[in-house]
Design a protein that fits this description.
Structural class: alpha+beta
Number of strands: 6
Largest sheet: 3 strands, antiparallel
Number of helices: 4
Length: 197
């Protein structure tokens, strides 16, 4: 019995066009624009919908580039799992094996009343000027692939560094002496953020 090649169902193009166009006007899910690339067997569906720049009235193009923020984690995690299945990487490998710039000394930042370093910041809750004392210690181990996969590497967007301070203040009010972090103990931070060791 011959095997059937993977392909889209008949009429797939108009069905997908209708669906993606509806996302542009849906009251709950409305997006200004999107690019879709789907392949099945030898068939390819690659189209752009909506606008890439609303203020300029610029149409979305299939070669448009834009930030994906946290969706990159999903895509990279999927690829990493495939590489793991094929024996191309191990979760206990240091990241520096694949990205040479990660081969460096990392520090752990810890809050302490008598820390030698200090960060001045304005409270987002009260508007007061506050000081955060901390100390730096050499990390006990390099960042490993498993740290990236479990989001415990301590690497964050610069965009959220003020938000970390805000969260730290909220949680310090709730539980004095405890500063939250998205990372586990012994995490390596590339920006000033506080962890509990």
């Amino acid at each position: 019995m011959p095997t059937q090649k993977a392909r889209f169902r008949d009429g797939y193009e108009s069905a997908l066009d209708e669906h993606f166009k509806s996302l542009l006007t849906d009251k709950q899910l409305a997006v200004p624009g999107l690019v879709v690339l789907a392949r099945r067997g030898g068939e390819c569906y690659h189209k752009a919908f909506g606008m890439s720049d609303l203020s300029q009235g610029r149409q979305m193009r299939t070669d448009a580039m834009y930030r994906m923020y946290s969706m990159t984690k999903v895509m990279i995690s999927f690829l990493a799992l495939r590489f793991y299945e094929e024996g191309l990487l191990d979760f206990n490998d240091p990241v520096s094996k694949y990205i040479p710039s990660f081969h460096r000394e990392w520090e752990v930042v810890r809050d302490t009343d008598d820390g030698g370093d200090m960060l001045n910041y304005r409270s987002m809750l009260t508007g007061r000027e506050l000081q955060l004392r901390y100390e730096r210690r050499p990390a006990k181990q390099p960042i490993l692939i498993k740290h990236l996969m479990s989001e415990t590497s301590g690497i964050e967007y610069d965009l959220f560094s003020e938000y970390d301070v805000f969260l730290a203040e909220v949680f310090a009010i709730a539980r004095p002496g405890w500063w939250p972090t998205a990372s586990a103990n012994n995490c390596m931070r590339t920006s000033i953020a506080v962890v509990t060791l």
